[in-house]
Amino acid sequence: MNSTPSDTPTLSPELLTRLRKELADERAAAIHELEQLGADPASEKVAPIQGIDDNFADSAAATAERGEQLAFIENARERLAGVDAALRKMDEGSYGVCEVCGAPIGEARLEARPLSVRCVNCAGK
Ligand SMILES: [Zn+2]
User: How much of the chain exceeds pLDDT 90, in percent?
Assistant: First the structure.
């Protein structure tokens, strides 16, 4: 029934459906996190930290907290960008193909790390 040519890296529809759902969840989580951190998921804007007045804003503690907040935001943005790239590839049909050598990344690897963009060989280099 479900014969696929062995020379194309076609992923099973079941796996794709599952990964798509995982990515959608991850996307929602990253957006939620950005909102919690006071960042606009759609832009680079970052709201000021709530509850810190101007006198406190210059202190080292405030600076450290700000730096930590920005690191979290940066991390969430990267996740969001990775998820968006993976979803775009799914739509284009290029998901699961190594972006370096063009070889199939492999279902087991994608299952473990849905955001993988390189095959095991290229990732290890
Ligand atoms: Zn590769």
Answer: 65
